[in-house]
Amino acid sequence: MPNPKKVVLAYSGGLDTSIILKWLQTEYGCEVVTFTADLGQGEELEPARRKAELLGIRPDNIFIRDLREEFVRDFVFPMFRANALYEGQYLLGTSIARPLIAKHLVEIARLTGADAVAHGATGKGNDQVRFELGVAALDPALRVIAPWRLWDLTSRTKLLEFAERNQIPIARDKRGEAPFSVDANLLHTSSEGKVLENPAEEAPEFVLQRVTPPEKAPDAPEMVEIGFEKGDAVAVNGQRLSPAAILARLNDLGGRHGVGILDLVENRFVGMKSRGLYETPGGTILLEAHRGIEQITLDAGAGHLKDSVMPRYAELIYNGFWFSPEREALQALIDRTQDHVTGTVRVKLYKGAARTVARWSDHSLYSERHVTFEEDAGAYDQKDAEGFIRLNALRLRLVATRNARVRRAG
């Protein structure tokens, strides 16, 4: 395969992607375009621009895009309409960011006339799959370069030696191995490696990035009210906000009260198990609140059907199939269920917990007349239950009768 002429690199400005930038230049002699996404990771991104320029990238080949609103509006919110949890616990904070990055890699490749894209994901993880499936779905003609699967820089020592040979700036704390690695965006932080690799050992407190340890959270609870329209959060405490601003506000509230810490050993798509510490304060509140408003606005049949497809939907996102026909089909089903998921939920935050304590809606299906223990003024005739039970018991009676007959014959 001939060398690529121009490559768009998903570039963070950190040591690894800076080494990849230089490696692409020296290995292929190609032009490199850098793309840095602001997903709300909380870091200043201008240093990435300056570092790219230092490594010889022309200013018109450096792309830094603020994707916070697009991330929450078009990726996080649709996922939360499904109440998606991978393996029953993980809120998919890293998984849902990768298709957005892949989308913009493809857009910038088309804009700049690049014939390849590159990423810094290792050959052991899920992200390589997510990036490359996304690119394949959006532009199958683009070549994808994954240096970690190609080069011989197989240790931290070799990486640092390469950096020094090529005059790549190395942050002082990178000269020793970092105690753990962190991926962050507006939805969550993900920490893994080193001090977290032994699942038999409790994660040290210093690993936490944005959530106060519950033991140190305020001693008084705090209430937060979240308004929804058609399944999406639109307001916090009565104030209408943009999607990204809502998630940022909930992150602040949840982080202060110790909400959203998850210590998980998960099954990676590539086959191995990995242990990670996730912090998703705003997402945890949002999931609880969305469940709360669905309780009074979503029909039982539609809700149970949605719950039954949720594990498959979450698995598709985790495994990198956001742009697949089956994810889009499931999304259409999920979105249809949200037509009346409109109202307000009050959530109590206290010492690591986010708990729905009240919910109300003009679209509510809840009928106090039907469920009251007091006189219901004819809203429900309890005698009707007898026929309902007899019909539902019919097949059970037939099975029991058949089994008794067979036992007697035997």
Could you explain the architecture of this structure?
The structure is a single chain. This protein is an alpha/beta fold. It folds into three domains: 6-68 and 94-177, Rossmann fold (3-Layer(aba) Sandwich), CATH 3.40.50; 182-298 and 337-360, Argininosuccinate synthetase, chain A, domain 2 (Alpha-Beta Complex); 377-409. Helix content is 40%, strand content 19%. Strands 3-2-1-4-5 form a five-stranded parallel beta sheet, sandwiched between helices. A five-stranded antiparallel beta sheet has the order 10-9-8-13-14. A four-stranded antiparallel beta sheet has the order 6-7-12-11, with no helix packed on it. A hairpin with a 2-residue loop joins strand 13 (343-350) and strand 14 (353-360). Helix 4 crosses helix 5, helix 7 (243-256) packs across helix 8 (281-297) and helix 9 (300-318) runs antiparallel to helix 10 (325-336). The model has no long low-confidence stretch (mean pLDDT 94).
Q: What is the element layout, followed by pairings?
A:
Blueprint (H helix, E strand, L loop, with lengths): L5 E5 L4 H14 L2 E8 L7 H9 L7 E5 L1 H14 L16 H15 L3 E3 L8 H12 L4 E3 L10 H10 L15 E4 L4 E4 L29 E8 L2 E5 L2 E2 L2 H14 L4 E7 L5 E7 L1 H17 L2 H19 L6 H12 L6 E8 L2 E8 L7 H4 L12 H26 L1
Parallel strand pairs: 1-2, 1-4, 2-3, 4-5
Antiparallel strand pairs: 6-7, 7-12, 8-9, 8-13, 9-10, 11-12, 13-14
Helix pairs in contact: 3-7, 4-5, 7-8, 9-10
Q: How is the main sheet built?
A: 5 strands, parallel
Helix content: 40-55%
- Give the strand order of the largest sheet, numbering strands 1, 2, ... along the chain: 3-2-1-4-5
- Please name the CATH architecture of the largest domain: 3-Layer(aba) Sandwich
CATH homologous superfamily (4th level) name of the largest domain:
HUPs
Shape: elongated
